[in-house]
Amino acid sequence: MKAQFITLLLVSLSCVWLAHAADDCPTNQKALFCYFANWAIYRNDIGAFTTNDIDPSLCTHLIYAFSGLSEYGGIQSLDSYNDVTRAGFHNFTGLKAQNPCLKTLLAIGGWNEGSRKYSVMVSDQRYREAFIDSVIRLLVQYDFDGLDFDWEYPSERGGVAADKQNFGLLLKELKQTLSKWDLLLTIAVPMSTYILSAAYDTTAINAAVDYVLIMGYDYTPVNSQVTGWLSPQNEIAATVDAWIKTVDSSKIVLGVPAYGRSFTLDNSNQNGIGVAVAGPGEAGFYTGEPGFLSYPEIQSKVQSGLYTIVKDSTAQNYYAYRKSGLDWICFETEETYTYKANYVLSKNLGGAMVWSIDTDEFRHELNSTFAVTNTLRKVLFAN
């Protein structure tokens, strides 16, 4: 009993210290959100990335991806071994002990979760209430500072037209409850003006959420039949302009990729944008995912001298093709990240977001510079 009392006392004193330390946090700076993909712990060799590899001073907000929706309509871990047994949740939120200004959020959803079960959950008030109760319990249990809702996407991929209104209702009800606990609510949305119109009640979103994170990447999907841009700035600008018609610009956060897309060309003599491909590119050694390369994997290729590199100023993207072979990559550089961070400032947006910090440069063998994240920081926090 005495030991329990001492433990509770120490926890209470720690919370008081963190609260006082947080009083000194800047209140008018841009936000820098960084996602952590929890499956990164399973990557090959030095590419494996755990919560211990996160520098808690880099980002203003860290998001743990992903949790999911259970068959009963409540939030759940998608990898309990990683999240709970190996203390992924606990270690992630524990990073605040090193940076009291840091906010940690838990993301729910993601591409693999699909849409149908979310569509069912938002369709009935009783289901929404049960979901909200489960969210509060999980966030408080593991000391998260909020929820990031990454439903991909309302009214699409098995959803129904009513999702647009029902998702708005859920966000309103969710925020009312989260606010009682001083918890944040953010949503992640795609770089698509079509889906914006079909899927999102932007008036309801503006009233309910703290930030809207635009996923400014994957413009050309991995299963594309032709080569294409990863994150073209002209398309991003159109999406941002559409959102800020009804949502405060200070709530809009622009996401950038700390990765690239690769394809295998059909013909080595046809190597530009919009040319036929045989399929996704060969998987990187660290990431092990066809058509996907982390930032350091890309740098290793393009700095080898084996590739011809092309920049497009309108898209603010690069592509590279192997001089002798069929390998083709679309990617960004520190130059384009700087451009996009300055764009965030020029549009008075709320900040920037990185998907994901575990594919940035992080180990000594990979330069340990967190080049993508630090490039954004340099511009956003210059003043």
TrEMBL record:
Keywords, ordered alphabetically: Disulfide bond, Glycosidase, Hydrolase, Signal
Entry's Gene Ontology cellular component terms: extracellular region
GO molecular function: chitin binding; chitinase activity
Keyword Phosphoprotein annotated: no
InterPro entries named in the record: Chitinase_II/V-like_cat, Chitinase_insertion_sf, GH, Glyco_hydro18_cat, Glyco_hydro_18_chit_AS, Glycosyl_Hydrlase_18
Domain GH18, residue spans: 30-383
Gene3D superfamilies, per the entry: 3.10.50.10, Glycosidases
Record Pfam families: Glyco_hydro_18
SMART domains referenced in this protein's UniProt entry, alphabetically: Glyco_18
Residues spanning the signal sequence: 1-21
GO biological process: carbohydrate metabolic process; chitin catabolic process
UniProt superkingdom: Eukaryota
PANTHER family the UniProt entry points to: CHITINASE (PTHR11177), CHITINASE 4-RELATED (PTHR11177:SF360)
UniProt similarity note: Belongs to the glycosyl hydrolase 18 family.
Protein name stated in the entry: Glycosyl hydrolases family 18
